[in-house]
Amino acid sequence: MHSFARHCGGPRGLFAATARTQLFVSPRLAIPAATAMPLPSPRSHRLPALSSRPFHTTAPSRRSRRDVPKEPPPTDLNELNVLGNTPAPSTSVDVCTYDGFGLNSGVTITGGNGALLVNGEAFEWRPWEVKGVMEVSNKKGQFELPKEAFGLFDMLWPRPDLLVIGVGKSNMPLSPQTRQHIAELGMRVEVLDTRNAAAQFNLLATERGVSEVAAALIPIGWKEGLGAV
How far is residue 159's CA from residue 36's CA, in Å, rounded to a whole number? Predict the structure, then answer.
């Protein structure tokens, strides 16, 4: 071994000779010279030269007026009114006058009388006569009438579900006593000034029917102690 190393020129020569010996002893691990791939030329790694031609930009095309989408037709609100083709009840209020009312049926209530609209029928209503004075409110400024003023509902069955009360030109609260009596009759109550009460009655009576909604209206010209004359 030592003589072989000296023949190869020392340890470095021995390592080189051993490597060459392994290359030829194991041909499967050696790369034949004929199949060795040449190293690529340094020039082939160069990046392609940028074109000196400036970038090309495309100007936005102008749209003609024909390309503009047409606006949808306006919405016809009459088509959305589900009650538009429903006839108004004959007892719907067309006009509120100073001393009465004009109804859709052509009936007019005048002379400062109120109107009681129940189950498709119209009645002149004078609830102040029950009190004996020309008053429909109490000292607290609340709309208050005795039970006898609503006596018609005692004789009616079935009764309406809702009673709309119009208390005159301006709204006022309903007294607890009157509210309680109407509740005992099995009716809900809504209190408004007479103009809004008439409009509310017209809407609800058309939608739900005159058997479900009733109205008790005081003329818009009503004045406490004087009436609407």
Answer: 110
pLDDT value, residue 97: 94
Where do we find the tokens 């003329």? Answer: 219
Going by the DSSP 8-state scheme, the letter that residue 216 receives in this structure is E
- The strand order across the sheet containing 100-103 reads 93-97, 100-103, 108-109
**Residue corresponding to tokens 């609503």:** 150
Conformational region of residue 183, where left means phi above 0, alpha means psi within -120 to 50, and beta covers everything else = alpha
Express each pLDDT in 23-62 by its tens digit. Answer: 444 444 444 444 445 545 545 445 455 455 554 555 555 6
The one-letter amino acid code at 223 reads K
Answer whether 0.85 is exceeded by the pTM: no
Give Cα separations from 196 to 11, 66, 170, 201, 205 (angstroms): 119, 50, 10, 9, 14
Residue 160 burial (C-beta neighbours within 10 Å; 0-12, 13-18, 19+): buried
162 CB-near residues (< 8 Å, 6+ apart):
187, 188, 189, 190, 204, 212, 213, 214
